[in-house]
Each structure stands twice: as C-alpha cells, then as structure tokens.
Specification:
Blueprint lengths: L2 H18 L12 H6 L6 E5 L2 E4 H9 L3 H5 L4 H20 L6 H19 L2 H8 L3 H21 L2 H10 L1 H4 L3 E10 L6 H17 L6 E4 L6 H9 L9 E2 L3 E11 L9 H21 L4 E3 L3
Antiparallel strand pairs: 1-2, 1-7, 3-4, 3-6, 5-6
C-alpha cells in the first residue's frame, strides 16, 4: 500500500467503521427499554456459518451499535443475526483473497473509535459495555471495515465512480433547492384515518397557498430524505403530492434550484463509501449462494 492509499484508508476508516457500527460519541447513552428487552443472552448460539458459531454476544454488539432511532424501535432479532452471518462470510472471503491491513492502522482506528465513545460514556469500560464489545471484538469490527475498504479501493474502477456521480450529481455536487413546505406530525403506527386527515389538511393548505416561508436545502439537509429526494426530482414551480415519512406527512413546492459546484474529486470519499457498501451487498449474495448457514433463534 503506497502513501496515498494509506491516507485514503485513514480518511475513510472511521466512516466505514461507523457504517457497520453506527453509534458515535453523541449516541452513547442509556440503552432504550425496547432494545434492552430484545437483546439475546451473550452465551446462546444463534447461528452457524460454514461451521463457525455466532453467539448472542456478537448479535448484541450489532444491536447496540445500531443508529439511535433504530434502538428505540429495534428490528426483529433475525435481522441482526443475518447481519452477523454476512460479516462472517465477508471475513472468510477477504482471508481467501489474502486482503490484509496493517496492524498499526487497525490499532490507530480502534483507539480513535474508543476515544470518541469513552468521552460520552465516561470511561473505556463503560463505552465498551454500551457498545456491546470487548477490546478484541471492537478491533475485529474495525479490521473488517478497513480490510473491506482496501478491497473496495482495489476492485472499483474509475468508471464506476464517474457513473455514480453522474446519476446522483444533484445529491453530491452541493446543488440546493429553494422550497416552501408544510407538514403534519403523525403518531407512531398511525391509523388510516389519521393519515387521511393529514392528507386532507395538507391539500387544503395547498389550495390556500399556505406552505410557509421559503427555505433553502441541500440534499442532505434537515428535511427527511424522502422529502428532499422528492424536491430534487421536481420541476421549478411544481407542487408535490403528499409525502409520508414515519413521523409526518409533508407537501412541498419548489421555487428555485441553485446549481452546485463540487466535482467528483471533491466528493470521491463519499462516493467510495456508497460503492463499497454496494460491493459488500453483491459479494454477500454470492457467498450466501454456496454457504452452509443454520439459524437457531430461541
């Protein structure tokens, strides 16, 4: 690995670590009751992959490292077990391909992740406990992320970067949209009646021209992604249909589009993170086609 590749690894390491373990320093808080109730016992065997056992301890780490909103409403246990299955398959794939990462890079990134978590949790021990890791399992998570990054850099070709940037240019180049919007909050598990009433109120707001003051947003702005995705697909002067998200219903009107100035090289790191995840998903599918997988949920 040359010096430029090492620099790219260091710049993207934390990004990909957090892609597979999403809790950051700001997120290390008390475990939500819903998640606490869903955590499996550490010693129970929940799956076997080509003869390798996956225990409750590994699954707990995946659950405790999920994004904070997901921790408030965890997915089914099997979803986390299957993620652990995928990780074992990718680890074995990388070993067969003899893709390796230097120990000092792994150590540096592990130290950085733990330092961020410890700052919020108060100590390394508390941080590891909250993340569901011991030091060795955290190093393993970091090593897998870094090694996959190296594999992705070696595998992806420049055309894939260019094609992705061209397809998603408005999302990546800093383009901004000026819009007005109105929203109505929805309760958890909103009923059909509630969503119908929200839609009716928003349609009335459209008729009355009551969509609030103009705001300017980038694709990754404060509005929910489904709302900004719709905004970036609309023509100037167009009003959207009702857009439902898990928390609210929205209607928007686009008034202006301000072109961005960022090039592919400016956002290459971001594109790599997306392409690396796509590559992961494709390889997981290939490995699963011939793997011996047995899931044993309680």
């Amino acid at each position: 690995m040359n010096s430029f590749q090492k620099l790219m690894v260091l710049r993207l390491a934390l990004l990909l670590v957090l892609m597979s373990a999403s809790v950051t320093a700001q997120d290390v808080t008390e475990i939500p009751h819903a998640l606490q109730d869903a955590l499996p016992e550490p010693s129970v065997v929940l799956a076997e992959v080509n003869g390798k056992k996956i225990t409750g301890a590994e699954v707990r780490a995946r659950m405790l490292s999920a994004p904070q909103p997901e921790q408030l409403a965890p997915r089914a246990l099997e979803a986390y077990v299957q993620e652990c299955v995928d990780r074992v398959l990718i680890e074995d794939f990388l070993k067969k391909r003899r893709v390796e990462i230097e120990d000092e890079i792994v150590a540096a990134r592990t130290k950085a992740v733990l330092a961020r978590a410890s700052k919020a949790a108060g100590s390394e021990e508390a941080a590891l406990d909250r993340l569901g890791h011991d030091e060795e399992s955290l190093r393993r998570t970091v090593r897998l992320s870094l090694t996959w990054l190296k594999h992705a850099q070696q595998t992806l070709i420049d055309k894939q970067y260019r094609d992705y940037f061209k397809e998603h240019q408005q999302e990546l180049d800093g383009t901004r949209v000026v819009l007005t919007y109105k929203f109505i909050k929805l309760s958890d598990n909103a009923t059909d009646g509630e969503t119908e009433r929200a839609a009716s109120q928003l349609k009335a707001a459209i008729t009355e021209g009551d969509l609030g003051e103009r705001v300017t947003t980038e694709f990754a702005g404060k509005l929910p992604r489904p709302v900004t995705a719709e905004a970036f697909s609309m023509n100037i002067g167009e009003t959207s249909d009702i857009i439902f998200t898990p928390q609210a219903a929205y209607v928007i009107r686009v008034h202006e589009r301000i072109p961005g100035q960022l090039s592919l090289e400016d956002v290459r790191t971001q594109v790599l993170s997306v392409l690396a995840q796509q590559l992961w998903d494709e390889e997981v599918a290939r490995q699963r086609s011939s793997a011996r997988i047995r899931v044993t949920l309680p």
